[in-house]
C-alpha cells in the first residue's frame, strides 16, 4: 500500500503543534493590545464639535479658570457644561461677527443649547463624582491631562477600570494640595513624602470596594 | 499473531484430576467465546467503515437534529432577550439552568470512573464499555457546559470567568466555589478529551489501514498521528495512558465535590451540609452508570455488539448502580436526620417543607426513583435482564434530575423570611433548553457511533485468551 502522507507531513505536524502555542500566545497578545488601544478606549481622539472650542486659547492664552465655565465641579458629580449664555458673556463683546461662532449666536438667539459631543463617556454602570475628587486633592490635569494645551478637546486618559484602580489603590502617588487642583502646570517636588502627608491631612482612603463606583 | 488452535506450550499440562465446578461459580465472560483478533477488528471497524449507513442511524440522527433546532431557538431567544425568559426569579435565582447543569455533569462521571479508576484497579470488564462511556462523558460535559455559560445572561462576556490580565485589573473571586467550578469543569473536560483521544490513537490507525476511501484514510491518518504500532510506540502509549488515568482519577472526585460546594458553601438550609461532597460524587457515579446502561442497552442491540458488551458488563453496571444508589439513599436519610439534629429552626423547617411542602410530589417521586427502584438490583434475575436494567436506569435518570430539583428550587423557594417566599416553575424556554441539550448530546453521540469505533478494538483483543499466552504482563 502506498504511503498516505508525504514524508514532509512529519515536519509539518511537528511545526504546527509546536507553533500552535506561539500562535495562540500571539493572538492573545494582539487582543490584549487592541482592548487597550484608542480603537476601544477613544484615548487621544479629538471629537468634532459644533464649535471648534479651544481650551488652549481660553485657559492658557486668556487665563480663564476652569470653574468659570465648569461651575459645579466642586459641588456636584457633574462638572457642568456651560450654557450658551456663559459664552456670550464675552462673545457678545468680542469676535461678534466671527463665522466660527455662528452656532453660538444662533443658539443664543433661538434659545436652544449647543449640542456638544461628549468626550469622556463612562459606562452607565459606573458612577463618577467630580466634587469628591476635587475636594480630596485630585488635580484636573491628573485625569484630563494638559487641557490647557489642547486645541481641540480629547480624552487624555484611557478611562479603563485598570486606570481608575491605579489611583484608587495608591492615591498617594497622585494627590496634590487642594490649592493646586486647578493648576494645570503643577509638578510635585517630593510626592513620596507629600502624598502620605496629604492622605492623612485630607483623610483619603483607598476605596477599592466594588460599590464605591458600581452602585 | 497467534491463532486460536495454537495452544501455548505452557498451557499444556497433565490433567491429574477432573474438578467439577458448578455452573454458577463459573465467571461470565467479558467477551463471548469464539472470537479471534481478526473477528474483533472486523466486527467493530465495519460498523464505522461500512459504506451503507443503516436507516436507523438516519432516523436517530434526524431526531437529534430536530432537537438541536429547539436548542438553537432556545439559545437565540436567550441571547436576544435575556434570562428573564426562564422561570428563575426571586427567591429562586437558580432553577432548571443549574438543575440541568448538575444533572449533565453528574452523568459525565461514569466515563472517567470506568476508564481511569477501573483501569488502575485492573477491572478487565471495563474494556468493552470504556470508549463509549468516555464519549458519553465528553458529550454530557458539553451539554452541561451550556448552562453555566448561558445562565450568566451575557454569554459573550463569559471569558470574564477566567483569570487573565484584563483592563479592569481584577481577578475573578477566587473564594467563590462558582469560580472553582470553572476550573474543575474545564479541567475535567480537557483531561477527559485527552484521555479519550489518546485511547483512540491505535484504533484510528486500524481504521486508517482498513479504510478504502482515500479521504477517510487521510482523516483517520491525521488522527492516528503516524501510529505504526512499533514496540516503542506501544511503550510510550501505555505510559501516557497510565499517566492520564492517574491524572483523571482525582478529577472524578474533584469535579462533583466542587459542584457540591456551589451549594454547601452557601448558608441556605438544605444546601449548607458537610456531607455534600461524597453525597454528590456517589450521585454522579450513580447517574453516570444509569446513563451508560440507558445508551448501551439499545446500542448493543442495534449494532449487534452482544458479543462484546456481554451480560457480565450489564450486570456489573447494575451492581455499581445499586452500591452508589444505596449511598445516595443513605444521604437522603442523613439529610433529614441532620436537619432535625441541628436543632436549627430553619433546618427543621426545611426538612418539614421538603416532605410536606408544595413540592412534596417531587420528593416522593425522588425517593421512589432513587431510593426504591435501584433495590431491584439486589435480584440477580433483574440484574441480568436488559429490560429490567433499562427500566431501573430510566428511573435513576429521572430520579437524579428530581434530586437536583428538590435541592435547588426546593431549598430556595422558602426563604428565611416568609415575606420572600415564592414558587419556581420552569418555563417553556427552560424545557426547550433541556430538551435541546439532549439533542446536542444525541447529535454528538450519533456522529460518534458512525465515525469512530465505539468499542476499543485493540483493548478488546487483549481480552482474548491468546493475548495472555505470555503471562499477565499486558
Written description of the protein model:
The complex is a heterodimer of chains A (215) and B (474). In chain A, 45% of the residues lie in helices and 0% in strands. Chain A is mainly alpha-helical and 215 residues long. Chain A is extended, with a radius of gyration of 25 Å. Chain A starts with 7 loop residues before the first helix and ends with a helix. Chain B is built from 16 helices and no strands. Chain B has helices spanning 37-49, 55-81, 96-107, 110-120, 130-151, 177-210, 214-224, 231-264, 276-302, 311-341, 345-356, 360-372, 380-383, 386-412, 428-451, 457-461. In chain B, helix 3 (96-107) packs across helix 9 and helix 9 runs antiparallel to helix 10 (311-341). The chains are: A mainly alpha (215), B mainly alpha (474). The A-B interface holds A 1, 4-5, 9-10, 13, 28, 32, 35-36, 158, 160-162, 165-166 and B 164-170, 208-209, 217-218, 221, 225-226.
Computed structural class of chain A: mainly alpha
- Would you identify the regions of chain B where 5 or more consecutive residues have pLDDT less than 50? none
Q: Assess the beta-strand content of chain B as a share of residues.
A: under 5%
What share of the residues of chain B lie within helices? 55-70%
Short description:
Chain A is mainly alpha-helical and 215 residues long. In chain A, 45% of the residues lie in helices and 0% in strands. The mean pLDDT of chain B is 88.
Amino acid at each position: 500500500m502506498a504511503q498516505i502522507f508525504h514524508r514532509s507531513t512529519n515536519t509539518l505536524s511537528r511545526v504546527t503543534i509546536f507553533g500552535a502555542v506561539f500562535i495562540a500566545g500571539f493572538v492573545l497578545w494582539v487582543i490584549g493590545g487592541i482592548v487597550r488601544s484608542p480603537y476601544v478606549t477613544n484615548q487621544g481622539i479629538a471629537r468634532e464639535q459644533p464649535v471648534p472650542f479651544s481650551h488652549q486659547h481660553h485657559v492658557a492664552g486668556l487665563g480663564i479658570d476652569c470653574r468659570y465655565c465648569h461651575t459645579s465641579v466642586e459641588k456636584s458629580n457633574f462638572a457642568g457644561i456651560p450654557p450658551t449664555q456663559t459664552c456670550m458673556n464675552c462673545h457678545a463683546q468680542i469676535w461678534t461677527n466671527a463665522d466660527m461662532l455662528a452656532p453660538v449666536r444662533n443658539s443664543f438667539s433661538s434659545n436652544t443649547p449647543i449640542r456638544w459631543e461628549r468626550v469622556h463617556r463612562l459606562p452607565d454602570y459606573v458612577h463618577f463624582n467630580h466634587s469628591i475628587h476635587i475636594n480630596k486633592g485630585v488635580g484636573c490635569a491628573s485625569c484630563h491631562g494638559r487641557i490647557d494645551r489642547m486645541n481641540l478637546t480629547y480624552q487624555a486618559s484611557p478611562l479603563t477600570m485598570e486606570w481608575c484602580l491605579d489611583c484608587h489603590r495608591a492615591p498617594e502617588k497622585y494627590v496634590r494640595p487642594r490649592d493646586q487642583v486647578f493648576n494645570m502646570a503643577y509638578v510635585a517636588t517630593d510626592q513620596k513624602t507629600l502624598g502620605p502627608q496629604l492622605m492623612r491631612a485630607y483623610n483619603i482612603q483607598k476605596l477599592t470596594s466594588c460599590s464605591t463606583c458600581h452602585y | 499473531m497467534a491463532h486460536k488452535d495454537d495452544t501455548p506450550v505452557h498451557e499444556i499440562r497433565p490433567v491429574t484430576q477432573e474438578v467439577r465446578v458448578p455452573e454458577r461459580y463459573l465467571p461470565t465472560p467479558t467477551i463471548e467465546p469464539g472470537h479471534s483478533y481478526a473477528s474483533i477488528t472486523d466486527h467493530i471497524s465495519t460498523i464505522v467503515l461500512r459504506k451503507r449507513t443503516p436507516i436507523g442511524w438516519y432516523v436517530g440522527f434526524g431526531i437529534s437534529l430536530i432537537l438541536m433546532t429547539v436548542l438553537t431557538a432556545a439559545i437565540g431567544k436567550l441571547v436576544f432577550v435575556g434570562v428573564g425568559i426562564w422561570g428563575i426569579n426571586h427567591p429562586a435565582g437558580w432553577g432548571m439552568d443549574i438543575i440541568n447543569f448538575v444533572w449533565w455533569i453528574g452523568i459525565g462521571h461514569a466515563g472517567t470512573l470506568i476508564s481511569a479508576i477501573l483501569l488502575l484497579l485492573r477491572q478487565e470488564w471495563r474494556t468493552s464499555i470504556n470508549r463509549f462511556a468516555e464519549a458519553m462523558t465528553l458529550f454530557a460535559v458539553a451539554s452541561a457546559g451550556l448552562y453555566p455559560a448561558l445562565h450568566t445572561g451575557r454569554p459573550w462576556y463569559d471569558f470574564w470567568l477566567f483569570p487573565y490580565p484584563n483592563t479592569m485589573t481584577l481577578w475573578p473571586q477566587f473564594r467563590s466555589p462558582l469560580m472553582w467550578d470553572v476550573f474543575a469543569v474545564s479541567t475535567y473536560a480537557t483531561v477527559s478529551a485527552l484521555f479519550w483521544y489518546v485511547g483512540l490513537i491505535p484504533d484510528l490507525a486500524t481504521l486508517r489501514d482498513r479504510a478504502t476511501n482515500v479521504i477517510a484514510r487521510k482523516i483517520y491518518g491525521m488522527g492516528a498521528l503516524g501510529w505504526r504500532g512499533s514496540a516503542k510506540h506501544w511503550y510510550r502509549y501505555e505510559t501516557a495512558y497510565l499517566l492520564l488515568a492517574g491524572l483523571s482519577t482525582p478529577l472524578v472526585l474533584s469535579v462533583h465535590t466542587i459542584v457540591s460546594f456551589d451549594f454547601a458553601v452557601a448558608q441556605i438550609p438544605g444546601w449548607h451540609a458537610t456531607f455534600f461532597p461524597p453525597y454528590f460524587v456517589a450521585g454522579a457515579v450513580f447517574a453516570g452508570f444509569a446513563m451508560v446502561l440507558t445508551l448501551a442497552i439499545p446500542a448493543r442491540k442495534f449494532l449487534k455488539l452482544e458479543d462484546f458488551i456481554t451480560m457480565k458488563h450489564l450486570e456489573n453496571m447494575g451492581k455499581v448502580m445499586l452500591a452508589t444508589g444505596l449511598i445516595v439513599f443513605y444521604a437522603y436519610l442523613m439529610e433529614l436526620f441532620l436537619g432535625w439534629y441541628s436543632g436549627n429552626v430553619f433546618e427543621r423547617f426545611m426538612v418539614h417543607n421538603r416532605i410536606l411542602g408544595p413540592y412534596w410530589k417531587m420528593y416522593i417521586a425522588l425517593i421512589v426513583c432513587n431510593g426504591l427502584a435501584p433495590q431491584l438490583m439486589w435480584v440477580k434475575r433483574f440484574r441480568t435482564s436488559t429490560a429490567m436494567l433499562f427500566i431501573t436506569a430510566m428511573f435513576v435518570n429521572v430520579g437524579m434530575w428530581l434530586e437536583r430539583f428538590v435541592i435547588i428550587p426546593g431549598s430556595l423557594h422558602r426563604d428565611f423570611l416568609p415575606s420572600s417566599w415564592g414558587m419556581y416553575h420552569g418555563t417553556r424556554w427552560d424545557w426547550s433548553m433541556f430538551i435541546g441539550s439532549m439533542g446536542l448530546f444525541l447529535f454528538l453521540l450519533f456522529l460518534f457511533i458512525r465515525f469512530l469505533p465505539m468499542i476499543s478494538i485493540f483493548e478488546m483483543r487483549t481480552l482474548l485468551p491468546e493475548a495472555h499466552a505470555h503471562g499477565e504482563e499486558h
